[in-house]
Amino acid sequence: MMRFNDDLPTPNYRKLDFNYIGEIEQRKRSLEFLELMNLRRTVREFSARAVPFELIEAAIATAGTAPSGANMQPWRFVVVEDQEVKRRIREAAEKEEYESYHGRMSEKWLRRLAVLGTDEHKPFLEIAPYLIVVFRITQVEENGETEPTYYSQESVGIAVGLLLAALHNVGLATLTHTPSPMKFLQEILGRPRNEVPFVLIPVGYPAEDATVPDISRKPLAEIMKIV
Length: 227
Prior knowledge:
Layout: H1 23-37, H2 53-63, E1 75-80, H3 83-104, H4 107-114, H5 124-127, E2 130-137, E3 139-142, E4 145-148, H6 152-169, E5 173-174, H7 183-188, E6 195-204, H8 220-223
């Protein structure tokens, strides 16, 4: 009698390519990276200054190294540089954001946003030289059959984290923008139904006079617990 898993493919292994680092260098790198990332801030005031496209490519390639459920890599990164497309995205995003700020959001939510100084106006969507729209692939088709992607939400979230770190590492500013609902991104960019918008990330250099809210991050003692 054939068991359920008798016809499953067998794994193919290769030797791990791993670079061991001495403890002194480990500590040095950890502190340098912490110092670098501690300077990362969400930016809403961008310069139109051109950005070398190879920096965007390398950052997305870095994001593509993220782990994913069943190695299905359920992400699609759509880079928008066309000014007309950016204009259309801004108009659609501001329409949704107006509805959110004038009825969809709760009083508590609006109070949280008030200290950040945000509203429905999103000029950065046209000013930033690039918009990276990250889509989550919900299912794939193989041999005429569809299959869901496993842990796609978590997988894409990890990939976006790597993307933000990679862009910051080369001196670029970013913003994680999530107008809700985001179906208009699917329509404007002509993406298939199995690609769901996850986040919209303007990328570029900050404006020379850019400012950011004077807020702080939670201390390590509050976000880490040892058991």
